[in-house]
Amino acid sequence: MRFRPTCILLAAAMFLAPTAALKAQQPVISRSFVSNKSVAAVSLRPQQMLKNPANALLPIEVAKAAGEKYLGMDAAHIEQAVCVIEPPLGPQFFYALFLKADQPWDLEKLAPEITEHTEPGEILGRKCLVSIDPAGPCFIVLKETTLIAASHGMLLKLMDPNVEKEDTVLTKLLAGHTTNDDLYVAVDMEGLRPLISLGMFQAASQVPPELQKFFNIPMLLQSGELTATLDGSLPSRLAFHAASETEASQVSQLLAEGKEQIKAQMLAEMQDSLAQMRQSGDPVQSAMADYTERVSGVYLDLFQPKQQGNTFMMFDSQQAGGAQVGAVAVIGILVALLLPAVQAGREAARRNASMNNLKQLDLALLNYESVRKEYPAHAIYSQEGKPLLSWRVAILPYLEGGDGLYQQFHLDEPWDSDHNKQLIPLMPAVFSSPSSILDPSKGKTNYVAPVGEGFVFDGTQKATRTRDVSDGTSMTVILLETSDEAAVTWTKPADWSYDTENPLKGLIGLRPGVFLAAFCDGHVSAIDEMIDTEFFKAILTKSGGEQVNAP
Length: 551
Known about the structure:
The protein is of the alpha+beta class.
């Protein structure tokens, strides 16, 4: 939606008033942006916020620089940013981000940091940047001024003209909201109930019985809406809707009880320190105790849910004290919205860098095999059959700049000999995962080989040849990225072993939702942590004969 100038000639206004009124009634978030299964939608108006003199304290310069660096456009040219998501209940995450600008977008100006996981392609006949990472966004421009960043599956849902649009709790909320707030958030609580129920079930055992009644609150809610405007020109409100007035009354009662319980608990926890302050004999300390006790419940008292039918307001900036609460809420929600986006961008960059590391290690293994007609064993062995040094040392000559370090090793001594252990801090950067918090100078690596019977590395001196990989090189894992807890000293002949009781042990936790695996043909994939364990075991073996598709 384009913003009209604030000053309009009277004559033009007389002729255009009916059209303007009609436009003003348009929903803030277009129905075309929302899939039938979407459960949440967020609208943010960067241009309106950044160009408003009342918002001078916003990091305008940072927004401008970040927009130009990553999007090829000053953020002040973005009229509206809309994000919609579906419940993250399956292996795929369906989401979409729409950026409507006052000038054309150019996909070629998007920064490599956000597009390096994509390649040029088409979706439903439209040219776009298609993600080769299942979790990464595709990028497409519609009508020149709208940039869409969305998961592949979400794009198909939104762009397919044969998909019939349905009325849902979320779409009904969006249809009724027509004001151009700085921020608008709408959530379908009904659609999120399976996820909420799962979370509450997991938390129930850790919550005292007297507090478990409050778990009923989200189950009584049908939807929620937040509106926020920084300069106060429009009301900032947080409202929840129940399916009926009776259920709304139950929620209001539970919230009131919860607030009083929190206040009582706060005062109980402070009593000892307040008593000490009052008994100190210092009038300032005594006054500070009185002040602390007085204000401890002020912000809680500002939250006075006001029920109107099946709707109740958690706060309203037009009510007493609402402006302060509104400002706090806006700041908190903006942080909540922006931080995940920043973190997701950083994680995507770290994941891409880590995938590149694995590709380099994989290529070194392939070059080793090309020269020697076999892969290295998992360790360099002594004449007596004792494992001395890792395969990671054996492939050093096939890594850029690694031959000089390789020449420094005493290959007939164990990894922790007086000489060899001095080389541990010299671990090449390619062995250091960008997602790890471990100090690289300590020589710990997250890149390991799966070692076990039937794997490329079987834990013996016997080396595998390419022709031994009868399951297919594109379907056989040769390297994995582990969590920091499972990291090993890079020179040590230690790797990762398959645990039948916990097949993904040591692989989960370094990055959200996935772990990385390199295959014998040189490609690297992000593997969903919800992967079927039988399928995972199948891609670990080199000649098991299982019928699987390449991940």
